[in-house]
């Protein structure tokens, strides 16, 4: 694909990106700042961890609900809660957020949360470039799209007695050491972390589920 064509495609994708984001609604409810339950339709695509869209029914005016005014919301079978003082780390920057919406994946002794990084303008260009590059790769047989399509998914763990949320390391060696120390009161889980290749970042939800006593440990 020639460079001018690539740039035109990139601009088209970027200009339409924001219009497509977070526009699929699901039945749900949120708790407002006065602890009242408000039912309706919610749209939340995970890329903006500080806001979601709400309307009472299709066709109504869209409201943007900020995390500062909502401690919790449910969208379908998914539960999201506001958590505070978290850091996002990417290849080129570190960002601190005072409060963000996180999906509650595990609610036992150790709670597990998943959140996504809000896209800045450069991130949006980065994402648009991923699509354009993938199309270019398909046409020319290249393999550059992998760089652009890194998923910005972050997991955090926290016990009720703890005051801070712990960002789960995604690199294999750091993940094993970190989780081995964090879950050390369950030696059987630590043993699996040390010998089972499937006990990795991608399966953190199952690991925490096993730690909380809700899932049998594998004997591999």
If you had to describe this structure to a student in words, what would you say it looks like?
With 220 residues, the protein is α+β, with helices and mostly antiparallel strands. The chain folds into two domains: 3-167, no CATH class; 170-220, no CATH class. The protein is built from six helices and ten strands. The protein has helices at residues 3-20, 121-140, 145-148, 172-182, 187-195, 204-211, and strands at 26-31, 37-43, 51-55, 63-66, 72-75, 78-89, 94-107, 110-116, 153-159, 166-167. 21% of the residues are buried. Residues 1-21 form the signal peptide. Keywords: Signal.
Summarize the structure.
Helices cover 32% and strands 31% of the residues. The chain is α+β, with helices and mostly antiparallel strands and 220 residues long. The termini are far apart.
SSE diagram, text form:
Layout lengths: L2 H18 L5 E6 L5 E7 L7 E5 L7 E4 L5 E4 L2 E12 L4 E14 L2 E7 L4 H20 L4 H4 L4 E7 L6 E2 L4 H11 L4 H9 L8 H8 L9
Antiparallel strand pairs: 1-2, 1-5, 2-3, 3-4, 5-6, 6-7, 7-8, 8-9, 9-10
Helix pairs in contact: 1-2, 4-5
Helix content: 25-40%
Radius of gyration from the alpha-carbon trace, in angstroms:
20 Å
Total number of strands: 10
Structural class, judged by helices and strands? alpha+beta
Count of helix runs: 6
Strands of the widest sheet, in order across it, are: 4-3-2-1-5-6-7-8-9-10
**Overall mean confidence score, pLDDT:** 80
The helix/strand series, from N terminus to C terminus, equals HEEEEEEEEHHEEHHH
User: Which percent band covers the strand fraction?
Assistant: 25-35%
Low-confidence stretches: 13-21, 140-150
Compute the separation of the termini in Å: 48 Å
Shape: elongated
Major sheet, described briefly?
10 strands, antiparallel
Overall number of domains: 2
């Amino acid at each position: 694909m020639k460079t001018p064509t690539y740039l035109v495609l990139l601009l088209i994708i970027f200009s339409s990106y924001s219009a497509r984001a977070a526009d699929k609604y699901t039945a749900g409810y949120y708790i407002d700042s006065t602890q009242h339950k408000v039912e309706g339709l919610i749209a939340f695509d995970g890329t903006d961890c500080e806001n979601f869209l709400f309307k009472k029914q299709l066709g109504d005016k869209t409201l943007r609900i900020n995390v500062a005014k909502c401690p919790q919301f449910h969208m379908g079978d998914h539960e999201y809660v506001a958590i505070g003082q978290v850091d996002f780390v990417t290849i080129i920057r570190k960002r601190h957020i005072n409060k963000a919406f996180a999906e509650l994946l595990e609610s036992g002794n150790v709670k597990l949360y998943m959140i996504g990084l809000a896209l800045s303008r450069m991130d949006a260009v980065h994402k648009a470039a991923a699509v354009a590059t993938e199309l270019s790769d398909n046409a020319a047989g290249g393999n550059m799209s992998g760089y652009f399509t890194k998923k910005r998914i972050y997991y955090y763990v926290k016990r009720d007695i703890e005051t801070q949320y712990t960002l789960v390391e995604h690199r294999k060696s750091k993940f094993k050491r970190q989780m081995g120390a964090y879950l050390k009161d369950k030696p059987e889980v630590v043993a699996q972390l040390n010998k089972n290749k499937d006990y990795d970042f991608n399966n953190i939800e199952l690991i925490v589920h096993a730690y909380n006593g809700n899932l049998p440990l594998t004997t591999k």
